[in-house]
Amino acid sequence: MAKTKYPTLLSPAKIGNVEIRNRTIMAAMGMSQSDNGFVNKATINHYAARAKGGVGAIIVEVTCVDTPLGLNTNGMLVIDDDKYIPGMADLAGAIHDGGAKAFLQISHTGRGARRAIIGDQPVGPSAVAMPYSYMMGLGNETPRELTIDEIHAIEEKYAQAALRAQKAGFDGVEIHSVGYYLGQQFLSSTANIRKDEYGGSRANRCRFHLNIIKRIKELCGDDFAIIVKLSVVEQGTDGGISIPDGIYYAKKFQEAGVDAIEVLAGKWSSESGKNERPESGYKDNMTMPLCQVLKYGILATTGHKKTITLIGCGHTQNPVAAEKALKNGTCEFVAIGHGLLVEPELVNKFAEGREDEIRPCIGCGHCIDHQLQHGGKAVCSGNAVLARGENDYSIAPAKKKKHVVVIGAGVAGVEAARIAAMRGHRVHLYDANKYVGGALEVAKRPPFKENFLPLQPYLERQLELTGVDVHLGKKVNAKDVLKMNADAVVCATGATSVVLPIEGADKTVLAKDVLLGNVKTGKNVVVIGGGSTGCETAEKLAMDKKNVTVLELTDKLAANTGKTAQTVLMGHLKGYGAKLLTECKAEKITKNSVVYTDKDGKEHTLKADTVVMAVGEKPDASLYEALKGKVKELYNIGDSNGGAILPNAVYEGYTVGNQI
Q: What's the pLDDT tens digit per position in 428-443?
């Protein structure tokens, strides 16, 4: 092997009898892009890109063993019938062609299934409703308790699904036992309150798994690897798996011949406290300590060192941290999730020393939110290709090379510029600011946004690699642009802050100026506007020990934020004592107060040393309008075209870069 900075991470190892080229595993992440459960071109392209990108093994996303009752989303993959085997064979073959090993995650959604999708009442170990959890942003109706015969039938469906996966060429399966899926529900003392042989004791609660494992081995043999994705502990008011439970289950799975455990934790809580972190602030290797818990727990309870392989998880896309965990023996493999969604070439870039070219995951949560909250496919704020069309990562050379001018170096403008340059166009990028990233300069400033920080250096590096001529601190107008004689012009000029037209508005400061540190605030601060920017500004101020009140006209706060991040943000605001007033209208601002009316029209006055305006932004399309009819090929993208969420801005830039 050539010399590498990550010799352990990139060394081969085994799960059971399956030899894997390195110790990286792509964690299963639902994409919801199948054709009525069947593998399609989008599915194959998605996983083939990651296999070619160097990952050691891929665990294909959650796949249903029992339709319709076991479905999670309308786009979920299915393997409860032989008719799905040909497509699965194509998928496994594409993964193998890329040099990776292929595992299939098999699952039943149980009480987490939605009536709107399955057309019936969900089922579960017991008639206990899935509680609302902010980690998923979901709760659900009370399920129907499964009968013993039905449990036996589902166990066999898991085993038959594994056999189909083997026939399709997969190297093994993973039994999903985390979150709101049926495997976890049987193991949980709060979801499973049965009094028969499937409930009560730990031994009974894991009987479902042990029966499935035994049957898979009977059908598939010992060379077909079995992984269990396990919540070693569940926290929160409805947590039903303790650390001793998790150790017991791991020990029993080891005894049953399971080859590996993907080690995670669960949380059941309707609200977040002030000490929780959103994914944008996750630390590296967050759940790795649980691997140590299992190692020492098995040793303490059996007197012998563990023999089962442990897969560590939790924000593991940092190769330095992953290498350290593997070298120290914390785990034998690392599972990488969102880092591989945003960057298919992640592992190759580790191996080639190209870390500065890795597109970072910022932890926005849109990939999950877009599926579970909105019933769509996964989308990504960094990877415009993800779950769009057929997931085709090829970029065709331009048939005619053009001179392209892009105005605005925010994420949309940079994406358009780099893609156009990759296709062979000569690209000039202008921005009035002296930095690349546009609104990112503000977006990275609130608390718990550490994972936003690598994005700007990545954008700068991409412009360098693709040969875009970058002109920063250069404000241009329509006359300037026309003098450039460009064949195509892309306007990505962003948006401007809105100020409410009320008395005293001239006494306010803008939220972005607070976040940038351009202004100082007094002790008592009123933030007018409870969108994501307003709430994040209030969060920063509250953590700085200011007395903060948020005034929001609607009944929702931080409405454009992903559900999990939104709940964590609300937990911070409440935990740090911010006052949150919804359905309230700011009427007047004086030297030291804000007058507002509530939903009943009653007038109130708030003391205010500083008033922060955070009522949104309006597109700045003035340059685009001035160039209309004067430039043959003209585009308007990003916030200047209406904005919305970051994934849309990136997608617009990518699309235009390919159209020119």
A: 999 999 999 999 999 9
Read off the tokens for 534. 């307003």
Query: Cα–Cα distance between 411 and 224 in angstroms, integer?
Result: 45
Does the pTM exceed 0.90?
A: yes
Tell me the pLDDT tens digit for each residue of 268-299: 777 777 788 888 889 999 889 999 999 999 99
181 is catalytic: yes
- The residue from 47, 84, 181, 576 that is catalytic is 181
In DSSP notation, 520-535 reads ---SEEEEE--SHHHH
CA distance 454 to 449: 10
Please give the DSSP secondary-structure letter assigned to residue 410. Answer: B
- Residue 59 bridge partners (DSSP): 103
| Residues forming a β-bridge with 437 | 410
Under DSSP, is residue 301 helix (H, G, I), strand (E, B) or coil?
Answer: helix
Q: Is 618 helix (H, G, I), strand (E, B) or coil?
A: strand
Host H or E run for residue 333: strand 333-336
Helix (H, G, I), strand (E, B) or coil at 214: helix
The label of the residue with tokens 């081995």 reads: 217
Type of residue at 223: D
- Distance separating alpha carbons of residues 222 and 224, to the nearest angstrom: 5
Q: Please say whether the beta carbons of 361 and 342 come within 8 A.
A: yes
Q: Which residues contact 377 (CB under 8 A, 6 or more apart)?
A: 31, 32, 33, 75, 370, 371, 387
